[in-house]
Specification:
single chain; 9 helices; about 425 residues; alpha+beta; 6-stranded mixed β-sheet
Amino acid sequence: MHEQAAVSRAEALTLEQARSIAAAQPARPPQQLPLEQAIGCLLAQAVTAQQPIPHSDTSAMDGWAVCGEQPEEGWQMLPGGATSPADLLPALGPGQAIEVVTGTPVPQGTDSVLRSEHAVIHYKAQRLRAVPGTGDLQPGRHIRPRGAEAAQGDQLLAKGQRLTPLRGAAAAVAGCDTLAVHPTPTVRIIATGTEVITAGLPGPGQVRDSFSMTLPALLTAMGAAPQTVSRNQDDPTALAAAFTAVDTDLLVTVGGTAHSAADPVRPALAEAGAETLISSVDMRPGHPVTLARLPPRALPHNTLVLALPGNPLAGYAALIAVGQVLIDALAGAVDPLGMRQQYLRAAQDLEPARRGTRLLPVTVDPGGVRPSAHHSPHMMRGLAQAAALAVVPSGGVPAGAQVRCLPLPTQELPLWAG
């Protein structure tokens, strides 16, 4: 056992090495998807305006398009005004006006739009006057100029941005029907452990499952698309068979990643012919995390296996520190390493781990970051109250110094935290 532990430590990568390997995994090939299906994906190409936005001068108000200065007797009201934004109107000459609604392309010759509430109408004479003192007669007033938001060809969304619902709306306004995106990585989850129960109070030698229920929601928040959750009772052969049958981009396993005879993940990976990319990481907690690449079978590309430790804090810390970078890389992120980290001030001394990098659950307040209570590897209480994981180097971080923080996927750091 001592020799095996020494080998394990020798194979351990630094956290930065492990994150770099995860970030280097190729993104899933781009696909051209309908706009509504592309929501949530990362853009594989920039989105540009297909025509000027707006594509014509339009009225910003319900009212009257007027041409020229107000005649003494008022503007002549032309018949056939707009009743919808789709109506096209005849050109105006000096002293003429025609009714418009919000969004109507203003007719040629329009100088401004007189709002309905600022108009005085003489129906018998079909004449229109403006109430005294209105500012509606200033040239261009209440007219949305063609191309005011974007000229044709302007970039609206950059490559690598996530297509949020509001960015999808911007793409629709730009005239896009489909977009080139990297599909959201699909994930299958396999939990191991004969000692793990999924309901009720655990008895001696048992623990409650703290992963199967929460991982799908957490992985969704991280930018992945979970498909199924299953269990394996520490049977390496059955686990290897499950590895060879996987049909998702990523397989996440929980538990069984250590080097003892009771841990099934490493033997199962070997039996399945997997190539180990990360054997372990010199960090606490979470050091037994493993990343492997399965031979291509059901998919035209390799499926990756991210094997998480079974202790709650260790498993989630490894998922956030290594798994998030991996998911972002598979999803097509431009900068998987730098996109989800922030440097904050330590409100107090942050003690290092006995060996390697420490991933410390922290809370954030106006004074800086502070350790959460109850942050041992087998505990969940501290992480449940945390906003981020502080990456504490071997020398620790003194109070007042900057410390790198990895926000939890379901949390947002306060705006003042930066």
